[in-house]
């Protein structure tokens, strides 16, 4: 087995349980499965922003993170792959979601593969992926995978239509794209072996193959 990549999942759901966390868990499991098919391991770590809301507000006004928030920020900044999921508020990401990523150090996510996802009550808000989430993580210099996943209320258990694949199909496709971009060896491997450097062109080709699968 190659080194386990540091995969972090950020869920901004406000209720408990929430469809946002449910989608986050499905994406994490699909990514873990795709990596396992390639003979690799992953143990995704979940960061629930709901429990950090007070600390996020405190950091914004004081400039100092409390211990739990500091640990979450360090996990995200040190991730080798991210899955981020937000509920839709006013046709955009939630304030809690944006406030958390406002606290991530500039360039901490540079080059980090990110899978973006969102949940909402109606399919009309699916454009949030491209008009809000994708620009945010492009601004942070992250590498956003081509397929974003939006889940409306009707997607849970729905059969899709002629133009829209079912939610499980979209989840699997996005997970395959993220898995293809994760490093072959984690920076935490620590076994003294020389890390194999895979040219970006090869990784991009693999991502395209997964997108067509």
Automatic annotation (TrEMBL):
InterPro entries in UniProt: CE1759_FMN_reduct, Flavoprotein-like_sf, FMN_Rdtase-like_dom, NAD(P)H-dep_FMN_reductase
UniProt GO molecular function: oxidoreductase activity
Keywords from the UniProt entry: Flavoprotein, FMN, Oxidoreductase
Domain NADPH-dependent FMN reductase-like: residue ranges: 6-156
Enzyme class name: oxidoreductase
Cleavable signal peptide: none
Lineage top rank: taxon: Bacteria
EC code(s) of this entry: 1.5.1.-
NCBIfam families linked to this entry: LLM_duo_CE1759 (TIGR04037)
PANTHER family: FMN REDUCTASE (NADPH)
Protein name: FMN reductase
The organism of origin for this protein: Streptomyces boetiae
Source lineage: Bacteria, Bacillati, Actinomycetota, Actinomycetes, Kitasatosporales
């Amino acid at each position: 087995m190659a080194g386990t990549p540091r995969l972090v999942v950020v869920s901004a759901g406000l209720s408990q349980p929430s469809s946002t966390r449910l989608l986050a868990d499905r994406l994490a499991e699909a990514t873990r499965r795709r990596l396992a098919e390639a003979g690799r391991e992953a143990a995704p770590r979940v960061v629930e922003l709901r429990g950090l809301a007070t600390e996020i507000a405190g950091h914004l006004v004081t400039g100092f993170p409390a211990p739990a928030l500091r640990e979450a920020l360090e996990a995200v900044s040190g991730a080798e792959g991210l899955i981020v999921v937000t509920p839709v508020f006013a046709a955009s990401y939630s304030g809690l979601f944006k406030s958390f990523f406002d606290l991530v150090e500039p360039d901490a996510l540079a080059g980090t593969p990110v899978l973006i996802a969102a949940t909402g009550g109606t399919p009309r808000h699916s454009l949030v992926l491209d008009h809000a989430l994708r620009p945010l993580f492009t601004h942070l210099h992250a590498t956003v995978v081509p397929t974003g996943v939006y889940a409306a209320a009707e997607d849970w258990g729905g059969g899709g239509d002629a133009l829209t694949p079912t939610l499980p199909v979209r989840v699997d496709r996005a997970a395959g794209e993220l898995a293809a971009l994760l490093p072959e060896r984690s920076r935490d491997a620590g076994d003294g072996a020389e890390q194999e450097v895979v040219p970006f062109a090869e990784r991009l080709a693999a991502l395209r193959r997964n997108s067509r699968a």
